[in-house]
Structures are given as structure tokens and as C-alpha cells.
Amino acid sequence: KVDYDVCSNYGNWLYSAGIGNDPRDNRKFNMIKQGLDYDGNGDYVRLWVPELQGIKGADIHAPWALNSVALSQAGVTLGETYPQPVVTAPEWSRHINQKPQGRSPHPRGRREPAHPPMQPKVRGIDFYFSHKKDG
């Protein structure tokens, strides 16, 4: 299955590049935070970047921040088997070496909500065609 929408993808690339339509000043796309939020265990990165397969967990989102022992154990040599970063944004530093939070399918270290999540109402197809709405 291919998930592709030309307009949405183009808009997201523009937004990520900082040239999209956004009223906020100095907005930047934080790749480290997004990786921790949506790929906390690094499975997606591991699928598409086989050079980093040996890095465990969320550390895969910032391999340049690992010490030489961890890189060696993972079979990664920065500048040889995987490139050095071209640029590192200052705002990434507060997310590097953090445990993933949020919507990760493998939420290692995820905080539990203060209240249990509300269960959605189960509504059949008739709900959408009925004139009487219950909620």
C-alpha cells in the first residue's frame, strides 16, 4: 500500500523547510521530537536506514550523539558507514537522549495519563443518517 497525496506531501515538505504558510515566527520542524513522538522505538528508521540497524531504541534518531563505544557496538562509524550530520539545530539538544513520549507504538518510558482515557461512543451507521443526534 502506498500512502501518497501530492498536495499534502508537497505542503508538508514546504512546512518542514520553513517556507510553508504559518503565522508563527521562527517556526522550525524538530526532527528529533517528531521521531520520538511517532517512532519512539526507531522501527521506521531501522526499516529505511539499514546502516543504523544495530542502534537500539530511540537512540537511532540521533546517532551522532552516541559515544564511540555505543557506535562501535552498533557497527556504525560516523563519516564512513553513516554520514556525519550536516547541521544540528540547537533546539534538538533538549530532545536528544530523552525517552519517547506521546503516540509511539512502542512507548518506552511513556508517562501514563492522570485520568484513564474516555471510551468513545460506539455508533452504528444509523447515527450518521438519523435526524436525531445523541451527543
UniProtKB/TrEMBL annotation:
<dbReference type="GO" id="GO:0003904">
    <property type="term" value="F:deoxyribodipyrimidine photo-lyase activity"/>
</dbReference>
<feature type="binding site">
    <location>
        <begin position="3"/>
        <end position="5"/>
    </location>
    <ligand>
        <name>FAD</name>
    </ligand>
</feature>
<dbReference type="GO" id="GO:0071949">
    <property type="term" value="F:FAD binding"/>
</dbReference>
<dbReference type="InterPro" id="IPR005101">
    <property type="entry name" value="Cryptochr/Photolyase_FAD-bd"/>
</dbReference>
<dbReference type="InterPro" id="IPR002081">
    <property type="entry name" value="Cryptochrome/DNA_photolyase_1"/>
</dbReference>
<dbReference type="InterPro" id="IPR036134">
    <property type="entry name" value="Crypto/Photolyase_FAD-like_sf"/>
</dbReference>
<dbReference type="GO" id="GO:0003684">
    <property type="term" value="F:damaged DNA binding"/>
</dbReference>
<keyword id="KW-0285">Flavoprotein</keyword>
<dbReference type="GO" id="GO:0000719">
    <property type="term" value="P:photoreactive repair"/>
</dbReference>
<feature type="domain" description="Cryptochrome/DNA photolyase FAD-binding">
    <location>
        <begin position="2"/>
        <end position="95"/>
    </location>
</feature>
<protein>
    <submittedName>
        <fullName>CRYD protein</fullName>
    </submittedName>
</protein>
<comment type="similarity">
    <text>Belongs to the DNA photolyase class-1 family.</text>
</comment>
<dbReference type="Pfam" id="PF03441">
    <property type="entry name" value="FAD_binding_7"/>
</dbReference>
<keyword id="KW-0274">FAD</keyword>
<feature type="region of interest" description="Disordered">
    <location>
        <begin position="89"/>
        <end position="125"/>
    </location>
</feature>
